[in-house]
Hints:
Elements: E1 11-20, E2 38-45, E3 48-56, E4 60-67, E5 73-79, E6 88-101, E7 104-120, E8 126-138, E9 146-158, E10 163-174, E11 180-192, E12 197-210, E13 213-226
Parallel strand pairs: 1-13
Antiparallel strand pairs: 1-2, 2-3, 3-4, 4-5, 5-6, 6-7, 7-8, 8-9, 9-10, 10-11, 11-12, 12-13
Amino acid sequence: MYFIHKAGLPLTLIFIMLSCSTYAQGSRHIADPLNLTTTLGAGFDADVLKVAGRLGGDSQKIEISSNFGGDKWHLAYLYSPQTQLSNWNVSASIKHGKTDTEIGRFNHYQYQLGIISEFSGWMETSVFTELGANYLSVRDYPDNDSLTAQASVTILKPWSDRWYNALVAKSSAAIDGSERYETHGWLSTGYRLTERWSWEIQYRYESVRYEGMNEEETNWSFAIQSQF
Length: 228
């Protein structure tokens, strides 16, 4: 569900990506969530080594990321028509992790399905909204499984050919009578070194309430990525 950082505001090096695109997609910004590229990469999330890869196509991509031990991983799929006739994009993902509780750590899986819509806002601002459902399955404790409705908004604002900001706000709440509420928000500032390379600094806040447990987390992160 989430990472628990024992330090106050750790600096996190996320993914240093090497990538190549499968076709020309010049209209997409490097930070655009609908940008389809093929990537391979590795990096550090706090003190955890992570590896990642993404296979892109003309209208879809598959992403996978995992820590080096393989006990926390995320597999995602996106179908994006990339045409002016369709403004609807379908996302699906499976996420495996371990939840820290007062009585131990438990394996869990999250299955998510969503619909993403893109809008052009004021002054070249791109707005992406996603509505979906997320099902949490806790191994050995099926009574704690839950289903939530989720909504998120991503705002991408390029200020120039180089500088840009991205703001993400996401919330979910249980719709099956269980106690599960999650709020995530992060603000990124990025700089495009070239058309293919950029670095990004991100500040993130997360709040989770699950079956009587409350967890809040804030952290900084730093990422470098490339696309070709």
